[in-house]
Amino acid sequence: MSQEIIQVDAFTAERFRGNPAALCILDEPADERWMQSLAAEMNLSETAYLRLDGDAYALRWFTPVAEVDLCGHATVAAAHILWEDGHVETSAECRFNTKSGLLVARRRDDWIEVDFPREEFAEIAAPEGLAEALGTAACRVVENRLSYCLVEVESESIVRELQPDIPALKRLPYNGFVVTSRAQTEDLDFVSRFFAPRLGVDEDPVTGSAHCLLGPYWEGPLGKSTFMAYQASARGGYVKVTVHDDRVCLGGQAVTVMRGRLV
């Protein structure tokens, strides 16, 4: 089997920043074991598979160890490649059929905007062992349907300097941990980091699905529905977030880094 594979850095306009995703555009359905094996081989937080399906593209996302229901950065990367390689006219929408329903991507100058489901949440008591695993106390803790545990902490500096105990986080019963605070940096509204050791991703550089939760979370405390967010990983990345009634629009940039062929 000869298959092109493309690596794109998403939520950034600079190579080697943001979050890298691998993209495969398939002519026919692929075996799930093959898709998971390739995702493990790529060893990125996400490998995405696209296949034309009527007037949309079927889109699936795999971490190195599991398929997931929602991934923002690989969706931004997928739209970027469909436009860049001429599969979709640059003036047209990219439409994706996914496990989270229909997702639509649009170009806004050099930004890509994707419409995602709004992630509702429920407030909970801090799980036993969470503070010790994170190395900091929580101001507030919530969870959502994706089994994400969102932890608000006191300051941006705590988010940026956090050095969690990854094996301890992996023992807690969540797919991912979103650590966030209000931003002290000018022109930012909130900052975050994301850890998902149970999904084979100790720290994700920039996480779209987390911002589908972060937008609704900060809507009340900040009294607004449009945000500029920064995920403060080592690579870092900017996300424009707009919260609607039942949807969240995420804006990001993307740049192609590498093209190869699997043989």
Structure description:
It is built from six helices and 18 strands. With 263 residues, the chain is an alpha+beta fold. It has an 18-stranded mixed β-sheet that branches.
Whole-number mean pLDDT: 97
Rg (CA only): 18 Å
Amount of helix:
10-25%
Alpha-carbon distance between the termini? 6 Å
* CATH level 1 name of the largest domain: Alpha Beta
CATH superfamily of the largest domain: Diaminopimelate Epimerase, Chain A, domain 1
Can you tell me the residue ranges where pLDDT is under 50 for at least 5 consecutive residues?
none
- How do the SSEs run, as a string of H and E? EEHEEEHEEEEHEEHHEEEHEEEE
- Oligomeric state of this protein: single chain
Number of strands: 18
Largest sheet features: 18 strands, mixed
Helix vs. strand class? alpha+beta
Just name the CATH architecture of the largest domain.
Answer: Roll
CATH topology type of the largest domain? Diaminopimelate Epimerase, Chain A, domain 1
The count of helical stretches stands at 6
Overall 3D shape? globular
The proportion of residues in beta strands is: 35-45%
Count the domains: 2
